[in-house]
User: Fold these one by one.
Assistant:
Number 1:
Amino acid sequence: MTKVSLGKLRPGSVGRVESITGESSIRRRLREMGVIAGQEIKVVRVAPLGDPIDVELMGYHLSLRRAEAAGVLVEVES
Amino acid sequence: MVHQAISLAAAEVGVRYTIVDISGGRGLRGHLRGMGLREGAEVELIAAADQNGPVTMLLGDSRIAVGSGMARKIKVKEAVWAEKPIRVAVAGNPNSGKTTVFNNLTGARQHVGNYPGVTVEKKEGTARLGERTIRFTDLPGTYSLTPYSPEELVARRFLLDEKPDVVVDVVDASNLERNLYLATQLMELGVKLVLVFNMSDLAKARGQAIDHERLSGLLGVPIVPTVGNRNRGTRELLETIVKVADGQLASRPRFVGYGRDIDAEIDKIERYLTEHGALTSVAPTRWLTLKLLEGDDEVCEMVRTRFDMDGELDELVAASRKHLHMHFGDEPEALIADRRYGFISGACREAVARSPERRHNVSDGIDKVVTNRWLGLPIFAAVMFVMFKAVFALGDVGIGWCEQGMEALGGWLGGVLPQGGLVQSLIVDGIVAGVGNVLVFLPLVVLLFLIIAFLEDTGYMARAAFVMDKVMHSIGLHGRSFIPMLLGFGCSLPAVMATRTLAGRRDRLTTMLVVPLMSCGAKLPVYLLFAGVFFGGAGAGSSVVWSLYVLGMVLAVLMALVFRKTLLRGPTEPLVMELPPYRMPTLKGVFIHMWERAWLYIKRAGTIIFLFSIAMWVLLNLPRNNALRQSYNARITAAEQTGESEEAIAAIKNEKAAQMMKRSIAGSIGRSVAPALKPLGLDDWKICTALLSGLVAKEVVVSTIGQTYAVGQETDEESGSLRDRIAHDPFFAGSRLKAYTLMVFVLLYVPCMVAVAVIKRESGSWKWAVLAAGYTTVLAYLVSLVVYQGGRLLGLG
């Protein structure tokens, strides 16, 4: 198991949320969208211009910029 | 409170009842009917039946007494309850199909307004079930009930202040866990909640079997499954709402358990609040407690100013928050959110069976193409191209019809009203022509709204924002800002209104301010006229028009950057946006969506333009120079008598119109402003007066130029004689540079007054409207100056 930021994951990889850091309004927004500790997240794809990214969690798709994703620390199987 | 039918014999004095049923033989029923006692009639008891005595009641103005035997055969219900409408608030996540459910519930009985003080739309509608009236208020779609966005704040305030009888939360059943997060917050608010599991067919298709009864038991609230886009479950929902409102069906939301440590802190604060009777009329104590622990700005502020003067509670809360932070190593907000999700996933584990999920559903398949690395942008460009092609091609046809309609109306009024008078001129040339100038754009605007509503309802707009976000972000805006910008090519009015969909205030204002720089539909006739005269129709002409579109976009981008770096400085709004599954929109849904915007446009444009048209007519037609008019009239009469050709007479009439206009207020302003535009090469009263009239709508510039060039009013950009006059006008002297400078100026200067008024409305202050009008004019002056003087330096003059 290794810990990386969600923003660094390649499309197709899956991780489990460890912690969220960053500005409180962004953390709040992420939380209410279901990005909470223990949640499984899959990076599905990257937008044509390289940002934002499209992730899947709880069976739905969420898009967020790499800047926002950088604060989400996930555990991945190494 | 159960309001069942009771017999009249058991009814109470002083209460109004509605008769719901009369049993017994035909003879008895006929007899009672003869007295006016029939189903649906309202009676008020004056004296009740004691022992076997008669019941006396008031029916309308007459007193009626019936024997106790008869009274027993009459079933009544409390009338007050049958009369009083049930007030229901409809909450739900965006993309949960909330709007569809609302439309199903209320049908066409809808009314759109605004929540007081904010530009958040408030939709209301009514439904009837039997004799009951149910009044629905559609709350804005939100993911949660924090006070950090205007939508959420509005929803929360409505629930707390209006205290609706029942709250309906529309949940996307195929995306249960995230959708239930809002439900937990509503449960904590202590409202009578009914959960609607919408898109239950989709949930089934995705391999989920939801045990509604079990889940309903676990949450303590009734659940009604629906399929919104097929209008299934609507009746059941209405019945459930009535039952819950009447207390026949319980809705007692379970409290989320937060675990021993957090619960202990909750208890501490809750006890304090209860003991001090704090704000109990405002909100449930438990909810207040949770909000205090979460550090909710609004609730903390309210408690501070309205209750906790000595700061005792503040200390208590701070201590609890600190304790929890130390204990769990995370902030209380996060802990509470975690527990809520824990509660949801616990309930779902017990009541939802999931067969191995079919990973690759249709929506994912579409996204593989639409948001593909290489195809994403070309597809976006193609969609936009097709949209504008369709709008302008089909819209043109409709505009033609509208113009004919307006002309016919003007012609008819012209015939009916007294000839040649001021009244006729005011109504026909001022109001009908003025309002018509804007309303002829209606087909174009409606069509654009229709296509955008379709793209939004399918889910494509979220993808477009996803694909475009990087570009928009680089100028300090949000991916979603591109929709208003796009609308700006049609008309600034809907574009400015569309900024409502943006979450951040700075994004909203910046977008609003730069939208008028886009080449809207009304600027096109001006381009076509001057490009046609000076650059020829095809080839050079169309590249000139094209260059103006590009110039507008480039300046919009630059100005957005400028605003984000100066007046509206601050961090960019984060992008955390759901990509909802693609859906086939319903025809009804798309049309309602379109109609709401179109109606708003008609109302705004209609009223503002009405007043402004009158003002502009005054400027263009007054003061009346009688001496001048009479001398021209004499010339016309003379020409008619001597049998001059019709062209000659028309020429005199046109010259008269031009001379009159030159001496009007607008003409005087035009003449006095002209010198200021000398550096731009536009120091001609004809042009300046036309520019002034363009404040109504930019396309009016063309018809005013028609008048000032004395070719008459009935001119459009294709008029041959107008083109001829402009081409030979000594002022232009064939200068392409002057013509181009003029077009640039028209592109940029003050957006029309309707747009300015809408910016005032949407931004909530005149400050931004004045800024929008001011900066665009300064920009127009500067850019035109650069174009003209630069062109002269290059020897293009």
Number 2:
Amino acid sequence: MSAELRIESREATPAAEHILVLRDLHKHFPIKEGALQRVVGQVRAVDGVSFELRRGQTLGLVGESGCGKTTLGRCVAGLIEPTSGGVYFGLDEAERLRLDELRATPDDATTAAQLEALDETHRVDRMQGDAWQHYRRNCQMVFQESFASLNPRHLVKDIVGRPLRVHREASGAELLGRVVDLLEQVGLGRQHLYRYPHQFSGGQRQRISIARALALDPELIVLDEPTSALDVSVQAQILNLLHELQQERDLAYLFITHDLSVVRHMADHIVVMYLGKVAETAPTQTLFDRPEHPYTQALLASSPDVVAGEVDPDMPLATLEGAVPDPAHPPQGCRFHTRCPVATDRCGWEIDDVVRFLEDSETLFDSLANVERHTAFDASLDFDDAASAAGLAAAMHGDSIPHAMAAALASVTVDDTRVRIQFDEVDEVTLTVRGPNHAAACVLRDQGGARPDM
Amino acid sequence: MTATESEETMAPPVSDVVIASVRDLRVHFRSKAGVVHAVDGVSFDIHDGETLGLVGETGCGKSVTARSFLKLVPMPPGIAAGGSIVFRPGEACPSCSGEGCVECESTGRRSIDLLELSERDMRDIRGDRIAMIFQDPGKALNPALSVREQLAEVFYQHRTDQLLDDASIDEGDSGVATTLLRRHAGLRSRRLEETLLALPPLRNRRNELRRAVDARVADALAETQIPNPRKVMDRYPHELSGGMRQRVMIAQALACDPDLLIADEPTTALDVTVQARILELIRELQQRHRTSVLYISHDLSLVRRVCDRVAVMYAGRIVEVAGAEQIFTEPAHPYTRGLLDAIPSAAHERGRLVAIAGTVPELIEPPALCRFSGRCPHAAPVCETMDPMVQPLDDEHDVACFIHHPVTGAENPTFAGPPR
């Protein structure tokens, strides 16, 4: 996140303090291969995400499956350790500003020590002892699969009472009383105490999960697709319940979902993720009224729920070409450029795009012998015969590749069976400010510049 | 085929010919607690060339209804408790050759009761005249077969003669080689015969047959806009993305150009961006092939986009049938209204979603009363004592509710307050 953005958000009227601050969070999973389980690569599930969540507010995290939103939720809940960067919990305003200052200044001994001190008390994966206990009490999680997240061999009273018992809050008759209170808050009752999870419907099981999350009176709840396994009528009940609880207890929600109509209803602020990175972040209304990133626009256009009743149902849904690229080799520049309908030559076209083009072609890929990469933007491709090499060179100037890709080409040189392709090098596209609290990672409309025709 | 030709020249309007009519379908399941009435008296028609949506919540019996078409409900524990599904493919009635008689209810089409069909006859219909797209392509495709083998099966099963034609094996031909090939093309070869066919003298002719199949498989894949079908053919399902797998399944379903396509939540397992593409694809192919579609979904907003008419199911019963637009603009049944209100939208204030109170009733030996009465905000005493029937509201709109069809001499429910 750029420096300007943080200034922007600082100027906005601080409704409440930030309960959760993420700074440049990375989570990479190693790919292991062979008998020795050698690490051959990294899946970049979460790759540099920063945002803040205020007390009593709901932050919606949206994206397709595989974009890293669940991994991010698990990092926030402290279930897995991030590779680098940090999740900070309970920073006050002064500490938050100092954190950003320290992270911005170059490394030296004093700042490192100060950062270390801040990390030890507030960074989730570094917390120890009391701080960790405090965090575990105040951050709870509700999972998508209520079948998998409730132990089928435990009674409801044990499931909901477990957090109270673990944290030595209550025991005996008092514990039972508190469990009944919790169940009543989520719309269940004393009669459900001595039942097993399988005796409940999906909506009721999700209520039990919520009761368990509420047991220790937390400040933050991570909701990982809490309603996607439910029918709409039951979903409405759960969403209403979540809203009531938020009002009563001043809860902050990190609401992870792929359902835009749900997030529009529930969230104050939305973060749109694509391939481990933030594509766009904005207040809910702004995001739906003026989406800036082409990916956000495509998501909104392809979701019939959101437009139902507002737009002619016969209008074709806007659709995206292609599949999400492999997060182990994320595209250069803007990660969305491979599917973007409005991509430009500055979006990070690279050798992988040429390889993808070859894979889709009927004949050329079979005669491709070797790809020798000099950089991500510069490689020599060897073919079995000169005709294929010439074919590729011709295709690079033809209409079969996107215009933006052709425009990004620096040079194509053919030497018998060898083709050397060079693209203009492009830096990674970062978030830029588009309005109050609104940022998008797209080279178009950058810094309020001229709006291209879409 | 003369029948199909005359079909095309006549080009009947969408609503005239009924391609399948379900009448009082009852499918029950035996369970420890008693007999579950999963589908309990469902009746509806699918017209030729239309897309009928079947909407309802989990457990309302919509999938069981769809599976009954192809006899895919396991029995036991399932019990066929009655009713009929009459299917009329685009063939002339055998008893009157298209003139119209009592047997075919003067439609001039062959009528088949799918529930009465033997397993062997069902095999001929499955995948040929009626095809199905399942919810999760990851589970519905065989992980041990490549896409080529997966699709080739359909052609071997249903298009044996055309394959032999393609491979220039005439009907009149005789001899050991031809017999072997014919058996191979009909998926009837034994191990030994396969071995014989793999030997040099026969191998060339067998490969010719295989090439014929490959060509058809590639065509079927290309139709679903799969780039580079020849390459995809050699992949296994796990190597493909969710959207791609669903395309393979659609290609498989449409391979024989069926008269009726049953799509059981085809996009539920997919991301929104992919879902949009698959929906467009199904719609486009349906229009090109003039296939009738039974589209099952729990998502009302999707159904509005895809379907011509919508049937709403609740607890094993149809409660409302209407045109797709009508269902959304003038929902007549309280349950349909509840479903529509529960969809979160910009118009709802947060925390003010109108949820349907309570839960779906148990379907074990249900008493004769309106099944929605326990959750209905407008329920009156009559709803607890009598069972509403699906009755027409106007030409295109049927509903089962006492609000619209009051019982004389009883206290009937009304929509209290201003209408939506």
